[in-house]
Design goal:
The chain is α/β, with parallel strands linked by helices. It has 2 domains: 2-32 and 238-332, Serine Threonine Protein Phosphatase 5, Tetratricopeptide repeat (Alpha Horseshoe); 50-229, 3-Layer(aba) Sandwich (Rossmann fold). The chain has 9 helices and 7 strands, in the order αββαβαβββαβααααα. A 5-stranded mixed sheet has the order 3-2-4-5-6, sandwiched between helices. Strands 1-7 form a two-stranded antiparallel ribbon. α2 links the parallel β2 (50-56) and β3 (101-105).
Length: 333
């Protein structure tokens, strides 16, 4: 509940700051920054070599429906594994680590998605030096397509759709501690719709079954990667530019991402214009922004305190909530 409340507040703040920027572009400038979003599901972060494993089922030979279903599911599974590995590579936890992807066939007949025995996990990981196995245990696509004609004025037109129900089940195996982490069932329904003056068909106006399966796998892999590893997200901050010359010089440094040079100019403002309370408060506020961007959140809070000791800016209380929220998130990383 607290996280939802803060997210809504931050969203509201972004609109407020954007409005202020357009209403008085002399006062503010926007800066884009990236912040780290913690993983939703816990996995060990002391791994050395991860391995992505894609489990698929073989179809029944001689049964066309079974073979087609197995091919469809396998297409989605392989794409999910590849996209998972690519998305993990963007996380700081996996920086500089190559994550191989390995496919194997499941041969159990249980209707339950049971964890692999540890001996089986070790066999799958053999020859890879993996100590962490990220496993797509099961994936199932259920396609459905239909359509109908209708009159568009004096002309006959056609409506058609293709939908895919997607079920994908993931687990993470820690080979060192022999523990299972982050079990997760991904569920989604994707729908493509088209209208045309020709009959709407899969593979013509609508994507083909295998193209749709590839996209389903893409979403499943991307979703799980963002659930188990910290990821970067884009945000915006504002800093003050109006004031004496050092404020304007600092603003140009900040615009070029030269935050140490900008901070030096704001320090000049604080030394020479301390008697101008609003100017000093804005310079101290900017120092808080610089320290947040440089990763010193506690120091950023100290600068906000100093800013408020000069003059209480309306923006300070909102920005304090942002910094405090980031400090709490940092504890989860």
């Amino acid at each position: 509940m607290e996280s939802k409340y803060i997210n809504n507040r931050l969203l509201f703040l972004s609109f407020v700051l954007l409005a202020l920027t357009f209403s008085s572009c002399v006062q503010y400038r926007l800066i884009n920054i990236q912040t780290l979003k913690p993983a939703e599901l816990a996995i060990p972060n002391n791994f050395i070599q991860p391995l992505v494993v894609v489990g698929t089922y073989e179809g029944i030979q001689g049964v066309p429906e079974s073979m087609a279903q197995a091919s469809l599911d396998s297409t989605a599974a392989i794409e999910a594994g590849l996209v998972l590995a690519e998305t993990l590579a963007e996380s700081p936890w996996f920086d500089g680590i190559e994550v191989p992807v390995k496919q194997h066939y499941r041969d159990d007949s249980s209707h339950l998605i049971l964890p692999y025995p540890w001996k089986r996990v070790e066999e799958i990981a053999a020859g890879t030096n993996a100590d962490l196995v990220i496993s797509l245990e099961y994936i199932k696509l259920t396609p459905k397509t239909s359509g109908y004609p209708f009159w568009d004025g004096a002309m006959q037109a056609y409506y058609g759709y293709l939908s895919m129900n997607v079920y994908a089940y993931w687990r993470v195996y820690d080979l060192y501690q022999q523990k299972v982490y982050s079990e997760h069932l991904y569920r989604d329904t994707l729908t493509w719709e088209e209208t045309d003056y020709y009959r709407v068909r899969v593979g013509d106006q609508l994507p083909g079954f295998f193209s749709a399966a590839t996209y389903c796998g893409f979403l499943a892999g991307q979703d799980y990667a963002k659930r188990i590893a910290p990821s970067w997200m884009d945000e915006q901050r504002v800093y003050f530019v109006k004031g004496p010359k050092p404020m304007k010089v600092a603003a140009e440094f900040a615009q070029n991402n030269q935050w140490l040079d900008a901070a030096a100019q704001w320090q000049v403002v604080l030394r020479n214009y301390e008697n101008r309370s609003q100017v000093a408060a804005k310079a101290a506020f900017n120092m808080a922004v610089a320290n947040e961007i440089l990763g010193s959140f506690d120091v950023a809070l100290e600068w906000l305190n100093q800013s408020e000791s000069y003059y209480v800016l309306p923006e300070a209380s909102w920005y304090r909530k942002i910094i405090e929220h980031r400090i709490k998130l940092l504890e989860r990383l």
